[in-house]
Specification:
Shape: globular
Radius of gyration: 21 Å
Distance between the termini: 25 Å
CATH architecture of the largest domain: 3-Layer(aba) Sandwich
Helix content: 40-55%
CATH topology of the largest domain: Rossmann fold
Bound molecules: adenosine-5'-tetraphosphate
Strand content: 5-15%
Order of helices and strands: EHEHHEHHHHEHEHHHHH
Largest sheet: 3 strands, parallel
């Protein structure tokens, strides 16, 4: 707790252009917590290097991710916005928690299995220990609530297990965090293969709608989205493509499944895909405009990074003092 407010922490990797999956599963929901909680929203660049990054692109995307946070409605005056590598306590606590996380636990992480299958030539130790760094990110701020998409649920459960183990040995050092997973939009699927998650690192650009895609591109991508050989817009097992489009449409318009079925009764997939594309492009248009304005003012973004890192570091220091003392490190 900071003052009398509870703590929210979440982060996004600057590992690619952000997708509507990142937006609907995570970023769109962040600003709802800003009044009631003290919120730390981080650009998790240390996590991004678990896959090989081009240095100039990583640097540019770090600015872009911060600019997108603000463009998506996060007020830097109300939220602590910062870059993970600017607060060295993340790496320090990450190492410490590595020593309290079991090999067997990390071996069961599905993200590790998926990412190592996709990156067979670079299965580095960081990819394997990614979840203990994520546990450090969360526990460092004595976080109460972590808004994330459902793909992060397993990592969150591991965070709780590690915190329980650590607290069991040393007393109540860490607050036990809960996840906040949105009911609609928790897992946006690929447009090319609706049985797998939409991911920013997917090499197939047609599978992904980026937050910053222009309207024509958004409409084209939805027009090409894989569906099925039927014509009826409704949610049913086996209609993965249509189910995914209904979820996206619902997230952007607030309409329920019943309303969507009624709206497109007898109209076919073409009309539906166009409506999904328009709803998405129209809602993201102000985000795109604000993003362009912010990216033209690097000095402003750097000020926010600096201020955010100082706020985060001061909060992290309190936890680190406690952790170091409990473990037995000489002060
Ligand atoms: N498809 C998705 N649907 C809903 N939520 C999603 N998130 C990611 N993809 C979807 C949520 O976005 C937040 C930030 O994710 P991340 O950048 O930390 O890493 P990730 O989960 O691994 O996301 P990507 O897009 O798949 O990135 P790459 O391709 O780099 O691995 C998280 O809250 C996540 O749940």
């Amino acid at each position: 707790m900071l003052g009398d407010k509870k703590i929210v922490f979440s982060g996004v990797q600057p590992s690619g252009n952000l997708t509507i999956g990142n937006y609907l599963g995570a970023i769109k929901n962040f600003s709802a917590f800003s009044d009631e909680y003290h919120c730390f929203y981080c650009v998790v660049d240390l996590h991004a290097i678990t896959l090989r990054q081009v240095p100039a692109e990583l640097r540019r995307r770090t600015y872009e991710t911060l600019a997108l946070y603000i463009a998506c409605g996060l007020d830097p005056e109300k939220n602590t916005l910062f870059v993970q590598s600017h607060v060295p306590a993340h790496a320090e606590l990450g190492w410490i928690l590595d020593c309290y996380t079991m090999f067997g636990e990390l071996s069961r992480m599905t993200q590790f299995k998926d990412k190592s299958a996709k990156n067979a030539s670079n299965i580095n130790a960081g990819l394997f220990t990614y979840p203990s760094l994520m546990a450090a990110d969360i526990l460092l701020y004595q976080t109460d609530l972590v808004p994330v998409g459902i793909d992060q649920k397993q990592h969150l459960e591991l965070t709780r297990d590690v915190a329980t183990r650590f607290n069991g040995i040393y007393g109540d050092v860490f607050t036990m965090p809960d996840g906040y997973i949105p009911q609609t939009g928790m897992k946006i699927m690929s447009l090319a293969d609706p049985t797998s998650k939409m991911s920013k690192s997917d090499p197939n650009e047609n599978a992904i709608v980026y937050i910053l895609d222009d309207k024509d591109t958004v409409l084209r991508k939805f027009r090409r989205a894989v569906t099925d050989s039927e014509t009826e817009v409704c949610r049913r097992e086996g209609k993965d493509g249509i189910n995914n489009l209904m979820t996206i449409y619902s997230c952007f318009t607030g309409k329920t499944d019943e309303e969507i079925v009624r709206e497109f009764a007898g109209r076919g997939y073409g009309d539906f895909k166009l409506a999904v594309g328009e709803a998405c492009a129209d809602q993201l248009a102000p985000v795109r405009e604000e993003f362009a304005r912010l990216m033209a003012d690097k000095a402003y973004l750097e000020d926010i990074m600096k201020k955010g890192a100082a706020e985060a570091a001061s909060c992290a220091l309190k936890t680190m003092r406690k952790v170091r003392k409990k473990i037995g490190f000489v002060n």
